[in-house]
Design brief:
It is a single chain. The chain is α+β, with helices and mostly antiparallel strands. The protein is built from four helices and eleven strands, in the order βββαβαββββαβββα. Strands 1, 2, 3, 4, 7, 8, 9, 10 and 11 form a nine-stranded mixed sheet that branches. It has a two-stranded antiparallel ribbon with strand order 5-6. Strand 2 and strand 3 form a beta hairpin. It is globular and about 45 Å long.
């Protein structure tokens, strides 16, 4: 029977168990053997990362052909416009082609943990938060989409993958899917 772990990946941690000397990796947080990340979350992003010991499940979660929804909270530089939100929802032209349409909405600043290091603050430039759901997984896709529209991403936190939710997991914490379901988090 396959097993699944839900992990709140902290900022600055690689989505793999090995890295160069001095790099923070999953091995510093997860001591379970035979598990691999189902998809990736870049070093500069935070939030939900799924790990499994089942290659088939790993592929089903990560492969864009299965269209698994991934939802993010993104803090972007500037006051995002309705035009930019509309463009994100229709697809954004990137160097590797137009993105699939995204579900996107403006949200109030969420109650999140403090990031280390903190996000830079600019006195004269506002920031906005959006919730964005995509169904593909290009390299640094959300960051490239928002930057392409003139709103660089300052902080990116994945809060769900399919039906799996980050819930109340703190950065660096992980739980098995069974324990997560039993707890109701």
């Amino acid at each position: 029977m396959s097993q699944l772990l839900l992990f709140n990946k902290p900022f600055g941690v690689l989505s793999q168990f090995t890295g160069k000397s001095g790099q923070r990796t999953l091995a510093q947080y997860i001591d379970c053997k035979g598990f691999y990340a189902a998809g990736r979350l870049d070093k500069d992003s935070e939030g939900l990362l799924l790990l499994t010991d089942d290659g088939k499940l790993q592929q089903q979660i990560a492969d864009p052909k299965f269209k698994t929804a991934k939802t993010y909270l993104a803090q972007v530089e500037g006051e995002i416009t309705d035009t930019a939100i509309f463009q994100l929802s229709k697809g954004v032209e990137l160097r590797d082609g137009i993105t699939w349409p995204a579900a996107v909405r403006l949200v109030d600043a969420p109650q999140l943990w403090q990031r280390d290091p903190p996000i830079r603050k600019r006195k004269n430039i506002a920031a906005s938060w959006i919730e964005l759901t995509i169904r593909e997984g290009r390299n640094r896709q959300v960051r490239r989409m928002t930057a392409n529209l003139g709103f660089p991403t300052l902080r990116l936190v994945r809060i769900s993958i399919g039906d799996w939710q980050l819930g109340s997991l703190e950065p660096g914490q992980w739980v098995s899917e069974e324990a997560f379901q039993a707890d109701g988090s």
